[in-house]
Each structure stands twice: as C-alpha cells, then as structure tokens.
C-alpha cells in the first residue's frame, strides 16, 4: 500500500472520528425512538394528525416548518413560541410582529398534544411534538422521510424582546443573514438549504411591496426582478392604503411553479430573477451563496438529503434535556403551574353561576375532545381565554415592516 493511500485512509478515519465526536456532543441525550417504551404510538399519532390536517389545508405544511424554525432560532427548541402567557409576565414570542397573526399550525399542535395526553399523560413534550410535526409536514410536501431525535423538554420562558436583532427578516442581505445563522451554530450552507423551504408557502404583499412600488429615486420597481414577474406581482398586489388591514392583505406563493411541493424549483426561480423577498433574491446576489443555489437547482436528491440534515441540526439548538430542566407541559399554550391555577379557579366560577345559566352554557359547549380518528366532525380546540397584552413600541418599530414573514 502506497504512502499516499495510507495518508488518504488516515485522513478519512480522522474525519470520521471527528464527525462522530461532534454528533455525540450535539445530540447529548436526544435520540431516535425516545418514546419507544413510554409512548410507542407518539410518532405515528402525530403523523396521522398532521397528514389529516394538511389534507384539509395545504397551508399547514409550510406553517409547521416555519413554526418549528421560529421556535428553535430563538432560545432553542423549547416550544416557547407556543405559549400564550409568559410566567414572568413578559409579552410572549408569538405576539412579536415577526409572528403574530402569520403563525399557522398552532391548532395542529394543540390537537396532537391533547390526543397524546389522552393516551400517554405527561409524557410527550410540546417541543418534541413540534419537531415531529415539522418533519411530517416536510414529508407530506414531498421530502423523503428522515429520523428525528427526541427527548426535548418544554421551556418556561417566552419573551418577544428576544427577537429584534436576533432573528432574520425579509429585508436582510447575505452578510447579515450569515451572521445570524453563525450565531446559532448554523452555517451559510444551512442558510441556503433552509431557505429552500420557501418552495412551499407564501408571503403577504406588504412583505415585498417595496420591490414593486417606489423602490428608489431612479426606479419604481427593483431592477433585479424579472420585469414580467414584477408586472404579475403588481396585478396581484395593488398599492397599499393607510387604512389597509394587514391580516386581509393578499398573499403570493414563493414558488409560482410548484407552490405545494417541497422541491428545488425555488432555486430555479431565484436564478430566473423571480425571488419574492429581498432575502430570497439576496442569495443570487452573493457569489458564494449563488454557487450553492446553482448546485441545488441541478441536484434535487442532494438538496433533499442536505435539507433534512439541516432540519435535524436546527432541532438540536439549545434543547432542554433531563429532569430539572424545563417540564413536559400538559397543554402547549400554558406552563403547568398556570394550567393548575386555572383549573383551581374553575370550580369557584362554576359555583357562582346560576343553575339555569350553567345549564345553557353546558348545552353550548362542545363534547369532550376525542382523538381525531374517533371523530366524524372534529370541533375546534377550546383554548383558555387569552390575557390582553400591552403594545410593545420598540419591537414594533424594529420588526413592524416585516410582519408576515412566510
């Protein structure tokens, strides 16, 4: 055996050893099949529910992937984005202008959680449900199935102030996006890979209106946009009026070719100058990221494999593992202490209600929640009354323009 061959084999062995060490360090307690003994039906139940919800609304697929990414990118994969109320009294993440009314898939997570609580009480965390659901959403949109490690516990903190300055927004360019991803232990390649999730879903018109109206002093339309595409966007997105309701704003698909299939058409659209957001188009303006875009546009199998790996990597960000760290919530919108306090208040409120009023309310309330496969017509989950939150001018100032990302 030649000296060059020995050096080559030694290099491969060293790389493999380093990779195993890194993997062991990153996972550090998370594992595939975590609920194999404590709740063996967990993954199959979540998958069935996700597929059933997507069959009724294709928008659930991009919504769940986005929900997972938004949760993990801020304070790690701890289901903090699902909290309606923060124990510390902070305005929670979901009320941020980067989230708000644009979050899709919350009902699906509630449904999965309530079903599993009926089967395996206090066992499957909301953070793990979200990770499984994001995988199942990607698979339903065309990605080959990949393994998801589990063992995360749910956080007890959620604060919208964590987002400004720490979260990518549609107006960012590659240097800033790369910086934010690097801060979370993600590479520039991860940035390009995960941007491929924009092969499904869409954005509200006000998210890219600056590119098709009053772009600059010298150009009404962003010159980097394909002119025919810009004209098409203008037909679907009339100029905004001051009194327009953001929640009623029209929405446009990221990928006009295959908007419901998770594939590499998104990258082809970018190269054809049909990227919807500034942050999408930025990937072909930078030489390094453009080379990656071109490579993925040519090789769908490579992108699928690497996208799954990037999703696995995201799912390991700052997780809470083991007893004494976080908790397994009984419902995903409240920490257990808040849930218990509300349950204790309910009997007192019921005793104060007149008998006739109580009987009328019981008639109006839906039947107790059943697993989806036992229902013919599933009622919407009944959530706890939400506490009104104060306006937050600083966060609104920073993120306000970028409401509706995705």
Automatic annotation (TrEMBL):
<dbReference type="GO" id="GO:0046872">
    <property type="term" value="F:metal ion binding"/>
</dbReference>
<dbReference type="InterPro" id="IPR010255">
    <property type="entry name" value="Haem_peroxidase_sf"/>
</dbReference>
<feature type="domain" description="Plant heme peroxidase family profile">
    <location>
        <begin position="29"/>
        <end position="336"/>
    </location>
</feature>
<feature type="region of interest" description="Disordered">
    <location>
        <begin position="339"/>
        <end position="391"/>
    </location>
</feature>
<keyword id="KW-0964">Secreted</keyword>
<dbReference type="GO" id="GO:0020037">
    <property type="term" value="F:heme binding"/>
</dbReference>
<comment type="function">
    <text>Removal of H(2)O(2), oxidation of toxic reductants, biosynthesis and degradation of lignin, suberization, auxin catabolism, response to environmental stresses such as wounding, pathogen attack and oxidative stress.</text>
</comment>
<feature type="binding site">
    <location>
        <position position="255"/>
    </location>
    <ligand>
        <name>Ca(2+) 2</name>
    </ligand>
</feature>
<dbReference type="InterPro" id="IPR000823">
    <property type="entry name" value="Peroxidase_pln"/>
</dbReference>
<keyword id="KW-0408">Iron</keyword>
<dbReference type="InterPro" id="IPR019793">
    <property type="entry name" value="Peroxidases_heam-ligand_BS"/>
</dbReference>
<feature type="binding site">
    <location>
        <position position="71"/>
    </location>
    <ligand>
        <name>Ca(2+) 1</name>
    </ligand>
</feature>
<keyword id="KW-0479">Metal-binding</keyword>
<feature type="disulfide bond">
    <location>
        <begin position="126"/>
        <end position="332"/>
    </location>
</feature>
<keyword id="KW-0575">Peroxidase</keyword>
<feature type="binding site">
    <location>
        <position position="80"/>
    </location>
    <ligand>
        <name>Ca(2+) 1</name>
    </ligand>
</feature>
<feature type="binding site">
    <location>
        <position position="78"/>
    </location>
    <ligand>
        <name>Ca(2+) 1</name>
    </ligand>
</feature>
<feature type="disulfide bond">
    <location>
        <begin position="72"/>
        <end position="77"/>
    </location>
</feature>
<feature type="binding site" description="axial binding residue">
    <location>
        <position position="198"/>
    </location>
    <ligand>
        <name>heme b</name>
    </ligand>
</feature>
<keyword id="KW-0560">Oxidoreductase</keyword>
<feature type="compositionally biased region" description="Basic residues">
    <location>
        <begin position="375"/>
        <end position="391"/>
    </location>
</feature>
<dbReference type="Pfam" id="PF00141">
    <property type="entry name" value="peroxidase"/>
</dbReference>
<dbReference type="GO" id="GO:0140825">
    <property type="term" value="F:lactoperoxidase activity"/>
</dbReference>
<keyword id="KW-0349">Heme</keyword>
<feature type="binding site">
    <location>
        <position position="76"/>
    </location>
    <ligand>
        <name>Ca(2+) 1</name>
    </ligand>
</feature>
<dbReference type="GO" id="GO:0006979">
    <property type="term" value="P:response to oxidative stress"/>
</dbReference>
<feature type="disulfide bond">
    <location>
        <begin position="205"/>
        <end position="237"/>
    </location>
</feature>
<feature type="binding site">
    <location>
        <position position="168"/>
    </location>
    <ligand>
        <name>substrate</name>
    </ligand>
</feature>
<dbReference type="GO" id="GO:0004601">
    <property type="term" value="F:peroxidase activity"/>
</dbReference>
<feature type="binding site">
    <location>
        <position position="263"/>
    </location>
    <ligand>
        <name>Ca(2+) 2</name>
    </ligand>
</feature>
<dbReference type="InterPro" id="IPR019794">
    <property type="entry name" value="Peroxidases_AS"/>
</dbReference>
<protein>
    <recommendedName>
        <fullName>Peroxidase</fullName>
        <ecNumber>1.11.1.7</ecNumber>
    </recommendedName>
</protein>
<feature type="binding site">
    <location>
        <position position="258"/>
    </location>
    <ligand>
        <name>Ca(2+) 2</name>
    </ligand>
</feature>
<dbReference type="GO" id="GO:0042744">
    <property type="term" value="P:hydrogen peroxide catabolic process"/>
</dbReference>
<keyword id="KW-1015">Disulfide bond</keyword>
<keyword id="KW-0732">Signal</keyword>
<feature type="disulfide bond">
    <location>
        <begin position="39"/>
        <end position="120"/>
    </location>
</feature>
<feature type="signal peptide">
    <location>
        <begin position="1"/>
        <end position="24"/>
    </location>
</feature>
<dbReference type="GO" id="GO:0006950">
    <property type="term" value="P:response to stress"/>
</dbReference>
<comment type="similarity">
    <text>Belongs to the peroxidase family. Ascorbate peroxidase subfamily.</text>
</comment>
<dbReference type="InterPro" id="IPR002016">
    <property type="entry name" value="Haem_peroxidase"/>
</dbReference>
<feature type="active site" description="Proton acceptor">
    <location>
        <position position="70"/>
    </location>
</feature>
């Amino acid at each position: 055996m030649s000296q060059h061959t020995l050096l080559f084999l030694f290099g491969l062995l060293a790389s493999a050893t380093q990779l195993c060490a890194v993997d062991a360090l990153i996972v550090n307690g998370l594992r595939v099949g975590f609920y194999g003994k404590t709740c063996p039906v967990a993954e199959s139940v979540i998958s069935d529910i996700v597929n059933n919800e997507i069959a009724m609304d294709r928008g659930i697929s991009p919504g769940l992937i986005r929900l997972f990414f938004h949760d993990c990118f801020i304070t790690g994969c701890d289901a903090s984005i699902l909290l309606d109320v923060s124990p510390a009294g902070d305005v929670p993440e979901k009320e941020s202008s980067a989230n708000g009314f644009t979050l899709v898939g919350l009902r699906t997570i509630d449904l999965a959680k309530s079903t599993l609580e009926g089967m395996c009480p206090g066992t499957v965390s909301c953070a793990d449900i979200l990770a499984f659901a994001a995988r199942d959403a990607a698979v339903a949109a065309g990605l080959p199935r990949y393994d998801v490690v589990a063992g995360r516990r749910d956080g007890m903190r959620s604060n919208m102030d964590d987002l400004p300055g720490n979260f990518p927004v549609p107006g960012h360019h590659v240097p800033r996006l790369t910086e934010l991803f690097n801060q979370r232990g993600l590479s520039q390649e991860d940035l390009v890979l995960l941007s491929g999730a924009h092969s499904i879903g869409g954005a509200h018109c006000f998210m890219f209106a600056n590119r098709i109206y009053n772009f600059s002093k010298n150009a009404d339309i962003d010159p980097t946009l394909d002119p025919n595409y810009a004209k098409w966007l203008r037909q679907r997105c009339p100029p905004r009026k001051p009194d327009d309701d953001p929640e009623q704003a029209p929405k446009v698909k990221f990928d006009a070719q295959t908007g419901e299939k998770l594939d590499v058409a998104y990258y082809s659209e970018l190269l054809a100058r049909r990227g919807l957001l500034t942050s999408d188009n930025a990937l072909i303006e930078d030489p390094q990221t453009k080379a990656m875009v071109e490579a993925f546009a040519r090789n769908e199998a490579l992108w699928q494999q690497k996208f799954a790996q990037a999703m696995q990597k995201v799912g390991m960000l700052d997780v809470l593992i083991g007893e004494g760290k976080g908790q397994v919530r009984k419902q995903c919108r409240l920490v257990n202490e808040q849930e218990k306090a509300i349950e204790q208040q309910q009997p007192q409120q019921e005793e104060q209600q007149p008998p006739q009023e109580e009987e009328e309310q019981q008639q109006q309330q839906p039947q107790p929640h059943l697993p989806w496969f036992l229902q013919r017509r599933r009622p919407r989950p009944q959530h706890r009354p939400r506490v009104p939150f104060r306006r937050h001018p600083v966060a609104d100032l920073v993120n306000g323009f970028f409401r509706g990302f995705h």
